[in-house]
Structure formats: structure tokens, C-alpha cells
């Protein structure tokens, strides 16, 4: 008997023991004389069940988890006997948490071998590129526009419009830059895609290159993601060997190649112009816009900059899925959003779903509430620069405009849950402090304002002329919002003011009036 | 000197620089490679990079000091990074950091005087669904609790 077993090589699974489980599996199999084929996949994104192991059967893959090395022997026996096991989860695809998702971008993540270009092709990979090679630049961009795809990094700018601007620019050298500096706490979707389905990102960038006439691409990956760097580098090498990168890609007249650049621990380099500076080998200092990167970007040349998830959505769209993509979602937010549930949450992980799902469904229903078992008090959506939402606003649907209307942001789709032990004044202070540490220093509202923000919040917490200092803090936030050059200083008022507005009792003030109707 | 790194050698550094200087915008690429080889980037390397890339020393120094990752002195023999961002905070990372500081007798962000261990905050390892998390000498650890942390602290002081 030869068993085909799948165990993630995803960093999140490795962090909770996937490598130890894989090692123990080899040992147990040898002892039992069972021959194994082990595939190290990405993660399915059901992190509370990691490390998860899947075995291929005639009916589909059957999952077991969460495993410790001590469970592996009995799991192998259960597989051999086709018998029950307390950690048997049944058919993976039938696990309700996975089944109720709409996985377009994450369809292959956790399924395929991320080191194998062949496995990628078998699962529909490079169909988008093959079709794009037969289309004109305009037709490719029309497809992207038709899909309604908006930048998944957070700002939500229509991707097709950006591409068209670069396509229409005249230059000898144009660039494609993939922003993989996923620094927002609570987000890990880029990391999962890079580790679990790296060829999809490369294919998306390649299609962008063909569409706008760029021959060089860079992926800027943060240094905190060494596994993603390794996975993308391996995939770039694999794509070159298979003729999907380099001169004459896919036997066409198009040349395109990609180089990985690794960040160095600066949060600001997730801001697109700071990222360009960093790739150019400079300090990650934000540039004033205009000129837009689409006109003058990397090394002063027209440049497409998109987030990992934006590029990752492209192969599906170009493989004839533009309409299917646009059919998902609500309002002007089309397609699916890979939402990341993290922090103090019972069922944390990657939940890809059409726009429109409410925050409450995500936190209570899908996330199962807190891991600590205590009541949920606050949820931060959209990273360190996103607003804190109280339970009264859990009816907010996931949609760029709906979140903006409630002084929040969807951002990169990170949802971090806090229980009732959280001190919201401390969280507000942390937001300012983080901004002070990570500010690039170019503009005064961000550089000085964040430092003064920390000091002012300290005064409020200490009861030092609280009402005057709150007025001062609100005024400071207004200045930062309107006067900062980029989203770091400009958005840090979101967590600060939302904490103050919804949780004033933590600042020593009277509790809030009910605000649900806003 | 941390394990696994070469002692500083300007000829070896010159080789690394020569090999990488033709990359577009090579400064960070070179700084990373030097740190990977030597464990830190000594002051002597800055003018070498400047000369190779036709930049001023001030420009290279400016880049070197901008990024949190680059070290001007060797780290401890072990480097323990504790994720200190919001997702880990919600799962109790502040208390764990305090526990680590007290056990190790040092403050977050320092290298201990005996050179055995560096304790550093990191703002998100992207393991937010298995928070709190840490990284010891490049190895990732999720679902950190006091028991698991104590084991890491023993390992970090070897």
C-alpha cells in the first residue's frame, strides 16, 4: 500500500509543529512498513486545526488535525484500517468552515505542491497566461476592468485603470512591482499565497507585464517572511526552467523576468512609493504624489504596483473568469475578499468570501468568538491603521464604502479580535507609538504628531486636564489626517479616534451613548 | 560572536560587494548579504559600499540606519524575537514579553551584556491566527504560552 499524504509547509503550520509531524510520519511509516508519498503543501487556512494532515482517498482527501507528533502513529493506523479517530475531520472539502467560502484566489492553496510548476498547471495554472498571450494589450486590460478588481492592498483603486495608465505611457523600460510587504498585524493572506501558490503570483505579474509592455518585475517581500522568500525564489527558478519567465515566455515574443527584493524591517515600505525607494536601494522615504508611479515609478519609469492578492486574482480573471469574478460582491466592491481572522479568536484563519458579509458573522459565527472564551469587546479591522469596532457596529458589511462610512477601513482584510480584558486607551497609545517608531520622517504631522500623540494620550490616561487634552488629541488627529503625506500618519487617527469614541470609559470618561444607528 | 557567522574580513566583504554591485539599486542587497555573512555590518563596510556604488558615505550610512534589521554590532549568540503587534497583544503577548524580560534579566530591544541572547520585538510575523508568536534563531513558534516561552528562554540562554 502506498499512501499519498499532504502536510503544510506554510509558516503558520510550521510554527505549531508541522515539521515535527512530518518527521514523525516518516518514522512511523517506516516502522509499519508503509510506503508514503508526502507532499508539503500550503495551508488550507484553518489554523486552529494546524498542523493538519490530509490523506488522498478514492472519495477525496480526508483530514486529521490538530496533530501532535504523538498522534501520528494512531492516525496512520486509522488510515490503514479506514477506521475512526478522534482527530479525524472527514473530507476536507466538506469541513463547513471551508465549504462555505468562495475560494477563487485560494482555490489551490493547501491543495497543490507549491514547488511544482506541473502541479500548478494540472490545477488550471497558466491558463490565464496562455489566453493573455493570444490577446491584445487592450483586451487584457478590458478583462481586468470588467472583473471590477480593486487593489487588494487596501486602497481599493481599480486595477485595470492603473494598468491602462501604464500601458499608455511611453518609455523604453517599464516595471511591474508586487508589493509583498505585508506589515499589517492581523494579515497573512499574502504570506499564505506566496508559500502555498507562488506560481499564481508570478503568473499574475507576467500577465501584467504583457498587458502594459513591461519586461522586468520585482517582488518586494518583507524580511519577516523568510519562508515566503524561499517559496517565491523557488517558483521563479521553476518558472524560468519551464519557459514561463525569461526571454520569449511561453514561446511568444514577450520577455519578462522577476527578481525578489527583501525588505529590512521598515513598516513604511508597504507604502508604495517608499517601497520603490527601497527597491532602488534608498531609505524608505515616501514620495509626494503626483507624479503617480504609473507615470514615474521605479527608477523614474512607468510602473504598475499591485498587492500580492491583486496579482493573485489575475490568472482566474484572465482564464475567462472576469464575469464570474464581477458577479461576486456588493456595490462597487466586486469579487471576493480573502479575510484574515486573527488575534484572540477561536477559529482563526483565512476566510475568502464575496464582499458583503458582516463583521458580526465573521467574528461570532465563523470565528466562534474569542479563544479565551471571554466576551468580544473590540475588533480592529484593516491593520494598525484600521479602526476599532465595538459590538454595536457588527452589522457593518465588508465593503470598501460601508467601512469608510463608519470611519473605518477594509484595508488588507485583517480582523483582530480582542476580549473584554483589553484596555483601549493602551491600544490607542500603541497606535501612535507604532506610528512614531515607523514614520519615515518626511512630513511633520506624522513625524512629530505621532510623538505628541503618545504624550497627549499619556496625559489623558493620567487624568491630567483630560477634557482639554482630548480636544487637543482630536485636533492633532485632524491635522495628521489632512496634513500627512501618506496613509501612515493619515490613517493612524482611525484606531485612535475610534477607541476614544467607542470606548471613552477606558480613557476615564463617561461611557458612550448608543451609536449603532450611525 | 554569534554562531554560524564568519569573522569580519574586509577582503571577503569586498568580494561580496563586487559580486552584487551590478544589481539595480544594490545598496540593500549588499547590506543584507554582508549581514548574512558576518552577522552585522561593521562601520568599515560603509565606505566600501559607497565607493563600489558611487554613492557618498552619508547616503549609505543613511540607508543602513533607516532599516530596523541592520545591525551595527553583533547580536547575541541567540536571537529571540517576540511578536509585539496587535494580534499578539490581543492574545497576551505583553505579559509574555514581561516574563521574558524578568527571566532573562534584560529589556526588550537589548543584547544581554554577556552576549548570550538578544531579545527583540518584531511587528508581526504573520502568524496572527496562532498568536502569540515568536522566532528563536529563525525558527517560528506559534501558540506561545508561559510554559512554551519558559522552554524557549532556557534554550536561548544555552
Would you mind describing this structure in some detail?
Chain A is α/β, with parallel strands linked by helices. Chain A is 41% helix and 16% strand. Chain A is built from 20 helices and 16 strands. The relative contact order of chain A is 0.10. Chain B has 2 domains: 10-66, no CATH class; 78-156, Glutaredoxin (3-Layer(aba) Sandwich). Chain B has a 5-stranded mixed β-sheet, with helices on one face. In chain B, α1 packs antiparallel against α2 (27-38), α3 crosses α4 (57-66) and α6 runs parallel beside α7 (146-156). The interface between A and B is large, with 59 and 41 residues. Chain A: Belongs to the complex I 51 kDa subunit family. Chain A: This is Formate dehydrogenase iron-sulfur subunit.
CATH fold-level name of the largest domain in chain A: Rossmann fold
Q: Helicity level of chain B, as a percent range?
A: 40-55%
How far is the first residue's CA from the last residue's CA of chain A? Answer: 62 Å
Unreliable parts of chain A: none
**Percent of residues of chain B in beta strands?**
5-15%
Q: What fraction strand of chain A?
A: 15-25%
Find the count of extended strands of chain A (DSSP E, 2+ residues): 16
Going across the major beta sheet of chain B, what is the strand order?
A: 2-3-1-4-5
Query: Which percent range fits the helix content of chain A?
Result: 40-55%
Largest sheet properties of chain B: 5 strands, mixed
Pfam families (chain A): Complex1_51K (PF01512), NADH_4Fe-4S (PF10589)
Protein name (chain A): Formate dehydrogenase iron-sulfur subunit
GO molecular function (chain A): 4 iron, 4 sulfur cluster binding; FMN binding; metal ion binding; NADH dehydrogenase (ubiquinone) activity
Keywords (chain A): 4Fe-4S, Iron, Iron-sulfur, Metal-binding
